[in-house]
Fold this protein.
Amino acid sequence: MKAIVLRRPGQVPAFSYEDLPDPQCKEGEIRILVKAAAVNRGEVQRRAGTVGGSWSPTSADPPKPAIVGWDVAGVIDRVGKNVNQNLIGQRVVALLVERGGYAEMAVVPSEFAIPIPAHMTFNEAASLPVAFLTSWYGLVRHAGLHAGEVVLIQAGTSGIGVAGIQIAKDLSAIVIATAGTDDKTEFCKKLGADYVINYTKEDFLDGVKDITNNRGVNVALDCVGGETLKNSIASLSHGGRIVTVGNVSQSHHPTIALDILFKIRPRFASESLLTEPDLPSALSNIVQLVAHGRIKAVIDKTFHLSRADEAHNYIEQRQHKGKVILTP
Ligand SMILES: NC(=O)c1ccc[n+]([C@@H]2O[C@H](COP(=O)([O-])OP(=O)(O)OC[C@H]3O[C@@H](n4cnc5c(N)ncnc54)[C@H](OP(=O)(O)O)[C@@H]3O)[C@@H](O)[C@H]2O)c1
């Protein structure tokens, strides 16, 4: 099969497009002929070597060649021992906990491959797992967001943000989103955000105070980190819930004054998607929400698999709104 291989982390171009042996199923696994793979910021950061332990260029361990990519959709073409043969030919989406998505084939434990309806495209399906699961666990499971509450979604056009806005609206919450350009603020409004703050023009903390009559938000979902995370906490109402899921700004963790914490008494949750329980059933739930039109996949751009470097560069330049997809 053809695959995108990362031999050493660094700036783009960092990938090579190579011929590798076809992966084989072990017991309990299925093999997917990949039709679409999504690109996530976490993969961009690992490719760059800015996060990822032994993948860091400064790590003492020599980096191991790797195929990155957590999200794929395609057709099952092989099954391992103790897996139902009737699954062959089924259209599925899968979360690859062990990575390997930037390739023509991927192998995964059978329970992580979720059937998709006939009307859902492979590109749509591949865009769902990491982004929508992260926002769903964050808002629903960790924050317990409910109807009528006000939620702040940072980076509204990010993969996490696009999912977060929609999941929050599906729960009948009131959404305040942030974005860095007017084009992106318009995009968030069309997606359903009730209020959008262009944080390059207006201090979002002031904006939140205005919108909420100084009460603050009940919940904040923050994937930006650094000073933004500090202000996400400061934007909470008394007893509000902050869910921190990422540090796209690559900032040092902020120092938060105790008087803010005593005044707000926030509840914290920090999420690491791949360690969440019940991932297959949660992904199945997301597929159903999309299938029933309650939320939708948002795809910005598609690149051929061989152009993974360009796809990563496009995301690093912050040009995307929603998901970027690779197709073999
Ligand atoms: N905890 C988990 O399990 C988990 C799961 C998924 C993702 N994540 C993390 O969540 C973060 C977001 O992922 P994603 O795939 O949704 O990101 P993404 O689609 O690449 O979007 C990131 C957006 O963040 C905004 N941003 C604000 N400050 C930024 C800065 N200093 N540098 C770059 N972008 C900045 C940009 O929008 P504007 O131009 O509007 O500012 C950018 O488009 C990443 O750190 C990722 O690793 C964590």
User: Anything to note?
Assistant: The first helix runs from residue 41 to 48. Residues 130-273 form a domain with the Rossmann fold fold (CATH 3.40.50.720). Residues 40-42, 45, 130-131, 134, 155, 157-160, 179-180, 184, 223-224, 245-249, 271-273, 315, 318 surround NAP (CB under 6 Å).
